């Protein structure tokens, strides 16, 4: 039987993507409002100012754990930016960070938390170095290659191999790995495959406020059109495989490139997954005025939909069960974290569920492509005869979130979503004889 599916243009609240809002770790005690406001992703600035010359206190570490527990309870994920300062404009040289040994020790202290709460940490901006943790203006001289490399390696080792670190500047990624990540290396868990990009001045001006410049050991920007072209070429090569996101900024509003055409083109070109909903506010307002805000909201990250499925009407007990389905990805990107895929057969009479793992990687359901998935499995002789609904499940693979429907992916089709289970219906049944 061939089943075709109708596309939905509804806004979908899916995990690890979209506009994000900001929270204060440890201060915002009830985060349930985040999903109610239409967000599944939040960013939080984690301030280590008081620990620039000493260990992080056990009290602070416990507050961090408690905050991440609340993130999990609220059904969202977080992008924590860890820094030693948060200067006002013009104060970047006055706000200290920490010496390298302190930074490395703090990362080691945070490692158990990164491991325990990996399920709700969407990704980790590199942080720690310089003003706002943005890897420039370090008062301890940490903006040299050797210091950056030590911090980057420590962060990658502290995080589980399923999670990515984001660097502010493509030049830092290229300095660490001159040859861009390729398809064979992607999603393997090696260090290079786990380094994404965080653009914190998206479309601010010609080089996105230093994003597409190279930087000397004094944090001076060196820019030319050729440098920008080279760095953008590098970023384009890796962006299908890694997390890309960030925010706009206000440094040069008269030079901003935030018109509708440029915005949508660059988000697509560099496979954006998320962006700040509130900063820089005039840019967000412009997108609303020009009518692209909803388009961005729908297309950030992945947007999967069923095109068609071929499903047998009858399978035999103890026999083979084969089916296929075609998924289109209308989003700017694909998922950047691992994702499970399952075919569900649910007995229509007693609602008993039978799960069949599908060996595919949704991270490779790339943007603006269609992907055919073929499945073959066996029907157990113990499976009762009867009529079964056929469903698709795309759950979070972590044990803490696997059974929680708000962390499963909803498809952009009409009449397929089950909010109580997180399943997507193939809108057909089969009989087990």
TrEMBL record:
Source organism per UniProt: Dulcicalothrix desertica PCC 7102
Domain DUF4874: 14-171
Protein name: DUF4832 domain-containing protein
Domain of life: Bacteria
UniProt cross-references to InterPro entries, sorted A to Z: DUF4832, DUF4874
DUF4832 domain ranges (all copies): 194-413
